[in-house]
Amino acid sequence: MAGLPNRESAPLKWVLDNGGGVYHESELDWLESMNTEIYSSDNLHDVRYEIRGKLAQRAHEMERRGYEIISLNIGNPGLFGFRTPETMRMAMIENLPESEAYCHQKGIFPAREAVVLQQQERGVMNVTAEHVFIGNGVSELIDLTLRALLNDGDEVLIPSPDYPLWTASVTLNGGTAVHYPCTPEKRFQPDLDALAGLINDRTRAIVIINPNNPTGAVYSREVLEAMVALAERHKLVVFSDEIYDGMVYDDAEFVPVAPLVKETLCGTFSGLSKIYRACGFRVGWVVFNGTNELAKDYLQGLDLLASLRLCSNVPGQWGVQTALGGYQSLKELVRPGGRLYESRQAVIQGVEASEYLHMLPPGGAMYAFVGADTDKLPDFDDQEFAMELLETQHVLLTPGSSFNIDYRNYFRVTVLPEAKVIEDVFRRMEKVLGG
Fold first, then answer.
1. In the chain, what are the domains?
2. CA–CA separation, 94 vs 76, rounded Å?
3. What is the pLDDT of residue 39?
4. Helical H runs in 68-108?
5. What is the pLDDT of residue 22?
6. Is the CB of residue 170 less than 8 Å from the CB of residue 206?
7. What predicted TM-score, i.e. pTM, was given to this entire model?
8. Is 336 left (phi over 0), alpha (psi -120 to 50) or beta?
9. 368 φ, ψ to 5°?
10. Which residue of 111, 250, 277, 303 sits 20 to 30 Å from the alpha carbon of 93, by its own alpha carbon?
11. How far is residue 198 from each of residues 174, 273, 299, measured CA to CA in Å?
12. How does strand 155-160 pair with strand 203-209?
């Protein structure tokens, strides 16, 4: 303040005691503006992503103070000792000299062609490499595909519970997320009657997450056929999030949606992050089938958005062909004796041993959606429980209400830690629940 020049002859508005200077009105306006708070965009007001929200921030603060936190909030295989298959790592390393320039906005041809071949193996024949877009993970592609589709006020049907990025991306792109129920009473399967009742003239698309995050539900062929029939009847775009395709347990069967879709547009999302334990590679893809000829304008719009960001990460794309065409090591992990299978069993046993918890065993993915018995814990609140568990037992999980549900007695844990760690986690949970 004292560093500003005095203006003795200026009209008086405000006199500062520290130095006794008299200032021009314009200077005082400038001083006042320096104290103006900077606010975030209004577009963010209804956007949530609690998986990396306040609880995760608090956990990070505790880690900086020296506490060891067991983080069960994110499906990040590399943090739990899972390695990307060596053949994929070698494919990336050997092609580093070819990775220093921008590639085509849709991705390198070998990666896109590998996705096409996978679709053909599933019986989807009307796709070419031109219908495949490689992105910086599925996350980026969710945003781009919705941005290319939606006008203000358009509606997108999203499951509840959902992976919250879908809801957030609809909101950020001017749309309205409308949640169709997948309740515990229906074993987290979509309520088809409720879903049909939500469709109106503003509905543009339906999102299917299978195997489901956060519940681990795996949808039957009959359910998927019914959802596709609804979409075709109302000419809705089908967005099928299949990032956990093939990660199923016991007798659960993964059924891809694309072969079921004939009379509308279907975008299938997948990537290297989960099945191939390569989250940091940031490589995902979306491939379109169905009525591609009728969707030329939309696909051109998506191509424009892909061009604006130049291209996605190039080195990681070299792992796609090897991943999709090589030995599928995931099968070893999800069968009895495999690490993911045994960790899932540890979660099931931990819930069964608790007098306070219940759960539908996850049929797929890398999560379990655990419920608290509200008869025995009538005041249970998922957010409060998660915070107390973090502060007192140093375990980080994700409250169920983070996944766009209106009940507060569920939470999500990942099954990535080794079984002995999960056993210890449930012992710590009991200390909080029984306290």
1. 50-81+332-433 (3.90.1150.10), 97-328 (3.40.640.10)
2. 25
3. 76
4. 86-94
5. 53
6. no
7. 0.89
8. beta
9. -130, 135
10. 303
11. 19, 32, 26
12. parallel
Q: Which of 312, 398, 363 is nearest to 137 (CA)?
A: 312
What Rg do the C-alpha atoms of the chain give, in angstroms?
25
Helix (H) or strand (E) holding 116: helix 109-121
Could you tell me the sign of the dihedral formed by the alpha carbons of 383, 387, 393, 396, in that order? positive
Q: Give tens-digit pLDDT for 299-343.
A: 999 999 999 999 999 999 999 999 999 889 999 999 999 999 999
CB 284 within 8 A of CB 271: yes
388: which 2 tokens? 């107390």
State mean pLDDT over 2-12.
45
Count of Cβ atoms closer than 10 Å to residue 203 Cβ:
19
pLDDT of 372-429, one tens digit each?
Answer: 999 999 999 999 999 999 999 999 999 999 999 999 999 999 999 999 999 999 999 9
pLDDT at 10 over 80: no
CA 227 to chain centre: 21
Q: Work out the number of other CB atoms within 10 angstroms of the CB of residue 355.
A: 10
* Tokens 């089938």 belong to residue: 289
Give the bridge partners for 160, in sequence order. Answer: 181
Mean pLDDT calculated for residue range 32-45: 73
Helices and strands (H and E) in the chain: how many: 14, 13
- Contacts of 422 by beta carbon, 8 Å cutoff, 6+ apart: 343, 346, 347, 350, 413, 415
User: Stretch 208-226: mean pLDDT, rounded?
Assistant: 97
Q: Can you tell me the distance from the alpha carbon of 59 to that of 377, in angstroms, rounded to the nearest whole number?
A: 25
Q: What is the mean pLDDT of the chain?
A: 91
Q: What b/e sequence results for 241-266 when a residue is b if at least 16 CB atoms lie within 10 Å of its CB, and e otherwise?
A: bbbbbbbbbeebebbbbbbbbeebbb
The alpha carbon of residue 117 and the mean position of all alpha carbons in its chain are separated, in whole angstroms, by 26
3-state DSSP percent of the chain in helix, strand and coil, to 5: 45, 15, 40
What are 134's strand-pairing partners? 285
Side-chain half-sphere exposure of 404, counting CA atoms within 13 A? 23
153: left (phi over 0), alpha (psi -120 to 50) or beta: left
The tens digit of pLDDT for each residue in 18-34 reads 455 555 666 666 666 66
